[in-house]
């Protein structure tokens, strides 16, 4: 018996449209999962850094400190691997972790915030000057022959500061503060 003419599209067209809609929804869901998975992966490519003045980066102190730094740091229970720095890499600079890297620079200029009234923190016998930034803090070693800056994201725990303090204390002798 032939189908009556009701003005509705043929059943075959309705089924095809439904199948295409389900296929499109599935494709969007799969692409969303793939994209989210890619975003969850840390960026382990070379880290681009701006060069900051580091007049003592080629000093014997930096030549002693930088090779003694660990290949990994622990921050909030997570292991952060050494991170390659993009060329041109600033001298005497080391980084760990992704996407929010921890960066150490040796031989930098004396921090302007270092004054006789500055609030210093002592960790493992090393005097640090903390300077808060936007989303990061930079801790400056201020009682050695060279200034060292350690920039950490606000989400970092105290592990990196402790580890670096131990290395600095072992490799660089303390000197009186210079204002």
TrEMBL record:
It comes from the Bacteria. InterPro entries: DUF3515. This is DUF3515 domain-containing protein. It comes from Amycolatopsis bartoniae.
